[in-house]
Every structure is written in C-alpha cells, then in structure tokens.
Amino acid sequence: MSKKNWQQITSRREFLHQCGLCTGSLVLPSSWLKMLVCAEPYSPQAGGNSRTGPLLEFRFFNSAQAAIVEAVTDQIIPADQQPGAKWAGVVHYIDLALVGDLKDFRVAYSRGIHRLATLAQDFAGKAFAELDFAAQTNILERLEQDQTPIALALNGAQFFELVRKHTLDGFFGDPKYGGNRDSVGWKILGFGG
Amino acid sequence: MDAIVIGAGAGGGVVANELAQAGLRVALFRGRNFSAADCDHDELTASQAPWNRNGRRFGPDFAEIQSYRPDPGTAARVVSSRGNYFSIVGWCVGGGTVSYQGLSWRFHPQTFRLKSLYGSIPGSTVEDWPISYDDLEPYYEKAEYELGICGDSASVAPPRRKPYPMPPLPDNREAQMLFPAARRLGWKPFHPPLAITSVEYRGRPACILCPYCIGYLCEVDAKSSTAVTVIPQALRTGLCTLHAQAVVREITVDGRGRPNGVIYREGKDPWKEMRAKLIVVAASAVETPRLLLSSKSKWFPSGIGNRYDQVGRHAHHDLSLAVFGYFDKVVSDGLGPGPSCAVDFQFQDQKLEGGGVLYNGFSRTPLRVVNTLPRPKSTKSWGRQFKEFYRKYFWQHIRIYCGAHGLPREGNRVDLDPELRDALGMPIARITHRAHAWSAPQLEWIAGRAEQLLSEAGAQFTIHDQVLPEPDGPLGEHQCGSCRMGSDPRSSVTDRTGRVHDVANVFVVDGSLMTNSGGCNPCLTIQALAYWVSEQIVRGWKSGGLNA
Predict the structure, then answer these.
(1) Looking at the 3D structure of chain A, how many domains does it have?
(2) Residues of chain B with C-beta less than 8 angstroms from the C-beta of A6
(3) Count of CB contacts below 8 A, A vs B?
(4) In this structure, is residue A105 part of a structural domain?
(5) pTM recorded for the entire structure
(6) What is the pLDDT of residue B56?
(7) Which domain holds residue A91?
(8) Global ipTM
C-alpha cells in the first residue's frame, strides 16, 4: 500500500461529503426544503393540503378512489414539520404502478378501497376522504385489524399492509416512479441519494 | 469443446478461467447477462431487497418456480421467484458475487471436522470433510490474490502464510466506535475481509465508498465479482465462450455410459446438443442437484452421481440474526460499503459448538432502513410516530450481523418435484428443508455478544431481529451441502477432488460441495474449492486421463 493511495481514498471521502452523500451529520436548515421545492413550497401550517389539484392525470384510479388512497398514504406518512405522502405524490406512484409492474394488485385495490369506504360509512357515517384526520386514523386502525375477506387470499388487514408497503416504496423509492416528489423522502432522512 | 462449465457464478467463473488458462476450450453456461444500464441507484429494483417490486435484477427471472415442504411426507407448495421463498440468490454472469457484500472469510480448521470435534450430532448427517484446512490453505490464498480481497492480515485466525493482497478499507465512523468498545470488553476486533478493492488492484480502481453496495452492481468495478475478474480473463484467452442466455436441461451420456455433453437452448432457439470431454456443474446448491437428477439414462436411471441416492441430500445453510443498537447521536458517516468491525468467537468456547462471528453492516439506503430497521413494540408501523422514528434513527443506529453454523439435517433434500414442470418443460426443484435445532442456541449466544458490544459502544437500547433465513423455510443465502464431497460414496456425491463418484469426467464446483456450512459467508471457500478442483482437473487433463 502506498501513502498516495490512502490520500486518494481520503480525498474521495471528502468528495462524497461535498456531494451531500453523507449528510447524516448535518442539521437541515428550515429554509432548505423551501429552497429546493421552490415551485410549490411546503407549508407546515397547510400540511399536505397546499396543493389544489393532482400533479398528474390518474391512469388507474377514478377521482373518488384516488382521494381515498391519497388520504390513506398521508395517514401512513403524515405531514408534520416536513411533508408527508400526499405532498410527495405517493398516490401517483401507486396509480402508475397499477398500470405497470404492480398490475396484479388492481383487484386488491378496487376491492380494498371499497372495503375502506364501507368501514367509513358504517363507523363514521361519511366518505373516508371527507373525515377529519383523527377520524380517518380510527377507521384505518379498524382496517388494520379487519379479517373480512375482500378478495382471493386477501382480507382487510392484508390490504392495509399492502398499501402501507406501497406507500413506503412511493415515498422513499426512486422519484422516477412518480412518487418521492423532489426526493422529499430522502431529504427527510438526510439521505443524499 | 473440451469442457462445459454450467454456472457462471463464484465457482464456475473461477473454473472456466483456470481451464482456459491451461489451454482447454471452455463453454461457460447460464446466467443472464447484464449491462452498464443495470448499474443504478434504484432501490426498487435492487437485488436482495425483499421489498423490491421488479424482481431481483441479478437474480432469477420472475417466471421461475420451485416447490417447498418442511419435512418429507408433507405436501409441497409452489413457490415463485416473485416471492421471498425462492431458494436462489444469484442468476447472472458473476452469480451472487455481483450483488453480494463480498465478505470473504476463510473457514476455521475445525469447521472441516465438526464430527470429529463433537461426535455424532442427533438429527444431523454431519461428516468430516475429506480435505483439511491445510489442504485448502494455498487455494484460499490463491483466491484472495486472484480475485482481490482486502483484510486485516494481523487478525488471529485462521492461520495464513501470506498477508491479504490489500489492506482493509479506511475505518468508518461505526468502526471508530466499535473497535474501542470491543477492546474494552477484552475481545479482539478486526476488519472483516471483503472482496472489495481498498487500493487500486490489477487495473481496477479503489472503492469509492458509495452506499450502493450490497444488492447492487458496483459502478466502478471495485467489488471483486467473478464478472469483473476471472470471467473477463477467461474470455480474453479466446478459448472460452459465454452462453449467457442459455438454459441447460440435462447432461448427455454416450453409448458406453460416459457423460459427453449437454442439451441446452439459447433464448427461444430449439434445444441443441453440445459435446465436451468433461463437464463441471457449478449452478448452486439447488440447481446443481436439479441438473444431475434431471440427467437420467439407462446408465444413470436415477440421475448422474445418484447411485446411492445422495444427490441433493444434506442441503442446508447457515443462519443469521441481526441485532440493532439505537444511539442518541449520529453514528454513521453515510459511507459504504459498511462492514468495518468484526469479532470472531468461533471455536473459542468449546461448550458452544462452533461459536459464531459478528460484524457491523450494511450501508444505509432509505428503503432498506425503513423496511429492515426494527421498531420497539410501542412504535406503530405507520403514522407520525413511525415517521419520527426513522427520521431520528436513520443515522443513529448500528446493525450487527450475527452468524452461526447450520448443519445438514436428516430429511433435508433438494430433489425433483414429481409432478411440476417449469415453462420450458423441465422438472422443477423441490426443496425439503428445515434448519437443524443446533443453530438457534448458537445464534442466541452470539446475539448476546452483539448486545454487549452495542451497549458498550453507547447504545441506549437494542433490538433483536428475527432469525434469517426463516428456520422452517426453504434454503436461503449461503445454501450448501447438496452434493457434498466425501470419501464414502454411500454418504457423499463427489470425492475429495470434486469429481462425482463413479463418473470419470463430471465435477461439482459450488456450495453443493461443502460438507457443512462455515457459520459465516461461504463465497471465498467456494472459490478456494474451485481453485482446488481446477488444479485436479488440469492435472487429469495433462496426464491424459480426462483427455480421452
């Protein structure tokens, strides 16, 4: 081993630091996100509701289904001082995936959304997307325990787990799949990508 | 052709190169090829990601199926390569070495003679290996130099004659915490050996310490996979041809009962035959027995090498368990590859058969962490608490991997499903497998050491993860033992040179050969065995015995 090689390694490490690959030790300045998301700044006060319409046309969901799924994703990763799944466009990730690699899950989503709508009507007397945040949480806690079969080899609880998993994929996965808008899932973790 | 090598992974790549360098014309089969386009940072398509949605990029295609049952006599269920229970990891040129982490341990001398050490172990079919550590030591050394391994030459065991060809990677922040903590506990920590360049090595640049390592194709060829080392060397001889998209259905036999080639097809072409004087099967501990058992003829009515019904028996793997420590400060610098501090307890405590090894890892990427970092029971799997937990602990946890020996369990086997066939009409592999009960207490013991280490390093709390692969599940990573070497044909498939008993010209070179698991990552041992077997083949070739 020559000393030169070690210096090269050290400088590579510094280079990675400079590229933001290792932002773990940084504290994010509060203005940072806003700077990067200049088109539509995230506002903690408005939560996930700062947007007026969908970012894209939906390919699989109808608008009622999209509203339900969007609300579910935002329960799974809610907005706080940083954006949640709604702002990150996770519903678009799921929608695009359902006409692509995840097309096998179409029936699960159609039936699962229907099941969730039924639970909302039965226990809160309203459409799920119209419930306030705490009431939606209550309904999802019921879905999380729901053993009612809704499709072949799928009950309510399993549907919830499916949406939970897809929400993580859409929020933390590569933005090229339609979610994780502006890499917000990575920025929240301090991960430079 | 002089030789056909089936399987272009850890073992097959090595053998193909050794034979081509010795002047043999070699056809190297199987394993989808990949391109530079497969090198990206996409966690949703990474290999080894149980959360991935598009299939394991360097693993099997989605269309593959196997069947699985825990015990003989129970009904087998179909498992698809789409799910997590498919018993194959690598399925590309380079095999598992493309997407693995590159941990490159030598097995301990005692690992080669567990039966002598512990006597007969109830419920296990364990036997001593027909070769010793001393037999294999020069070939470990050769593998370390030919492939390129970095490591701590000062680490105590196993004994070695030459230092590693490369020094360890620079310490990351985890190492800076774990080394002093381990020393305070009176242990001897060392840098785990990795098949990764720490300095420029034989034309490949040093690792750039990026976090996209395990599960990914290395973007600078710093990972010493066979796809960037021995396979290109073999191809450069002009004597080795790669049939990357080919599927091999069976080994053919001539009119005198001597294997003389294979039936294969390339892409959607019709099935063809290729002749060769010798055949090396290096397709993994599942696919190797599947191919041998599929090669039936009047000379081998139950498959090649299966006269004593041994092909596919004794299949097992080693087990692991991760322990996570949670800190009140950032403990990572975000650099890859990750593993930077190891402690080896194997064979240090004779009461604990085999002991175990622990090391930290791996580099953290978002989906890997949110899918694998366990939460305390009080933290829900969704909602504000969930988000807060990962935001806090993404950089404030250390994962310790604990490994333990698996053992060949009576009843475990890879054979052919009596009914099911795959899309090409070939019989599928049926896995009958459960872990031997011996591993669980070992894992508990080593996990206790991991908790001690994390607490000593300042962890506020620790969480024990589940045992992987699932003890009552199919074969997972590090699968081995299914065509084991031995001196008695009634309890093994090959002799000590890797040659199938009773067959002059068929050799096995992969995890199948290993008589038992090493309690740690097996790749370097597979490669040392590949060099060992290659030397026997070349010797046999030059003396004329194989060149008939």
Answers:
(1) 1
(2) 170, 199
(3) 116
(4) yes
(5) 0.90
(6) 61
(7) 55-189
(8) 0.89
